[in-house]
Amino acid sequence: MKRGTVITLVIIGLLAIGFVGFRTYQTHMTREREARRAAQIDADKRRKAEEARLRAEADAEAHRLASLKAEQDAERAAEQLAQLRADQAAAEAKRHQAEEEARLASEAREKAEKERDAAQGEARRLAEERARDAERAEAARREALEKLAASEREKRALADREAERLASLKRQQQLEAEAQKQAELMARSIYPSDHKAAAKKNAE
User: Fold this and answer.
1) Local structure of 191: helix, strand or coil
2) pLDDT digit string (tens) for 56-76?
3) Are residues 177 and 90 in the same domain?
4) Helix, strand, coil % in the chain, rounded to nearest 5
5) Helices 2-118 and 192-203 sit at what angle, rounded to 10 degrees?
6) What's the DSSP call for residue 121?
């Protein structure tokens, strides 16, 4: 009877030890699964944060390049506008010269007409010839003056269009610069926690 009781107690003890061991193993496995799940969640968070950081950096770089291109376009437009204005000034100088030449030709024509009216015979013929020459010269200068005036109007219109384009490029440059600043601020605001975690890990 005592031997049967001892055997029973031993069996109960072995069962208790097995149950405790099983529960311990089960608890250990549960903790491992939770640890792996937490590690996976943390890895997913870090991956998403890194992807967001990379996207923000890419956006900032795109805005920076766009701003740089707008600035370069504005510089080229300014150079073209300066050249157009120089051409316009040269055209105006030519026009003034042509006007002066036309005035002198008109005076010469008037003088020739007076000489024609006052002259007799050969002198009259020579005066008429000079008058015709003066009229032809005046017509040629008038035609040149009209061409210069048309060229001046065209250059002025082109300069006005370039000035408008330059203003538009400058406005685009300002918008791109503001967008770049916002993208950089967003990039810095996305992963400050990653910097803290990295600093803590380095300290450990």
Assistant:
1) coil
2) 888 888 888 888 888 888 888
3) yes
4) 95, 0, 5
5) 130
6) T
